[in-house]
Amino acid sequence: xxxxxxxxxxxxxxxxxxxxxxxxxxxxxxxxxxxxxxxxxxxxxxxxxxxxxxxxxxxxxxxxxxxxxxxxxxxxxxxxxxxxxxxxxxxxxxxxxxxxxxxxxxxxxxxxxxxxxxxxxxxxxxxxxxxxxxxxxxxxxxxxxxxxxxxxxxxxxxxxxxxxxxxxxxxxxxxxxxxxxxxxxxxxxxxxxxxxxxxxxxxxxxxxxxxxxxxxxxxxxxxxxxxxxxxxxxxxxxxxxxxxxxxxxxxxxxxxxxxxxxxxxxxxxxxxxxxxxxxxxxxxxxxxxxxxxxxxxxxxxxxxxxxxxxxxxxxxxxxxxxxxxxxxxxxxxxxxxxxxxxxxxxxxxxxxxxxxxxxxxxxxxxxxxxxxxxxxxxxxxxxxxxxxxxxxxxxxxxxxxxxxxxxxxxxxxxxxxxxxxxxxxxxxxxxxxxxxxxxxxxxxxxxxxxxxxxxxxxxxxxxxxxxxxxxxxxxxxxxxxxxxxxxxxxxxxxxxxxxxxxxxxxxxxxxxxxxxxxxxxxxxxxxxxxxxxxxxxxxxxxxxxxxxxxxxxxxxxxxxxxxxxxxxxxxxxxxxxxxxxxxxxxxxxxxxxxxxxxxxxxxx
Length: 604
Description:
This protein is α+β, with helices and mostly antiparallel strands. The chain contains 24 helices and 11 strands. The strands form 3 sheets. The chain has a 5-stranded antiparallel sheet. The protein has a 4-stranded antiparallel sheet with strand order 1-2-3-4. A two-stranded antiparallel ribbon has the order 5-6. Helix 16 runs antiparallel to helix 21.
């Protein structure tokens, strides 16, 4: 206890010697701390940071020197409580307190700087926010100005008549020239009023035209009904004239034989036979109808089987015995089933359609019994030789392409009967197109001529109607005749082109110059694949304007060093659909219709 008391007394003495007042406890100690903090804050404004930094360095040096002295004294044998050590400790404490004060002042100075920086940052943020608001307002005003400048009224989309036509055609009460010639706004309003008046007049004319159209349609329907009633009347007249025909000894024996054979025709061919004869007698004397084939076999098919049950039992027994004797291969069975599936009726129908230029179109109609569809094969015979242009003859009058797309999108490659798909799956037939060359083309118009109607729903019954055949007969015959005539005309033109002779009619003679410098070097046929590979036809193929059913030709025209290539797409429905030309010019580089306006004009 005595040592602790001595230490406390020594500390008091040292504090009194250093001039440091002793801190009071309790309430007085807190008040002194507040007063000291406040005085330091006030003192901070008058102190120089550089002087404080120098004082800090000096205190650190002195503190380090005192500590070294204390260490030296202790090393020389000085005791713990000697006066020199205590004095240096007291001085060290003073320097240490000075460092703490400088530290507090530095922290207060840092806090003050941070507060000032924060206040300045807040002011900057407020100013930046005000700037952003002003920029947003400016942008909004600019957008509104742009909208106002880009605004287009509805009247700008209306194609108004010119001002001259307006003043010439519009009445004075609408044009008002004394006002509209000086005021553009009033002029626009007056032109809009005149446009409205004209449209009202056109609407009235449209109503009158519609009424006239309805009247004409009614008269057409009456005439059609009258034409429909002609057939039974003509039949009655023919029956009444039989005695006269016998008295005049007119040659009707062949007709009677054909009529007798026609009884054994299948229903679709019979419908076509009747309707073609009726149409030929009434409207087209150049249409001849004949029946060919094995009549006995057709009679055997039309007879009902006798003792069918006994025959079935006998045939079953024979089949079982045959199976026990030999087992045919699967391929042989499929071939037999395919042949049976594609079997034609023994009788066929031939229509000979004569044209104006002594040419004849031969149409051979067949009926596939198991598939319940009709097919057709064609042949063209002319009075002149068609071998002068082999490529044109091969493509234009070929049986596969002559009647292609007679009606739109009717290529005649696949069977129109939806039930045949399931029949083909059973016997392994992938596509009917593989057998078209042998059996003929099953065009939709052929089915319509035979009165066959195939609904989209397979659950509906496929029926044969003579009214359907009669409605298609006249239009189809006209299309067939026009198709043959157009192909023969094209044949003549292509024959001249293959011999480098350009046929020019008298009506078009004025379009050609008197002196022709260019020459047709080559005119040949090409294929769909070769046409697709041409660089200057990519825009045609990408647009889907070139199809596999079209005919393709290539022409080369030369003039000096210039070489013009022309790729021609000819639709089967020509001249209803115009040919499509793609040109490529090799002269001072490669040019095409997509890069040269002159070539594009030539193509059009």
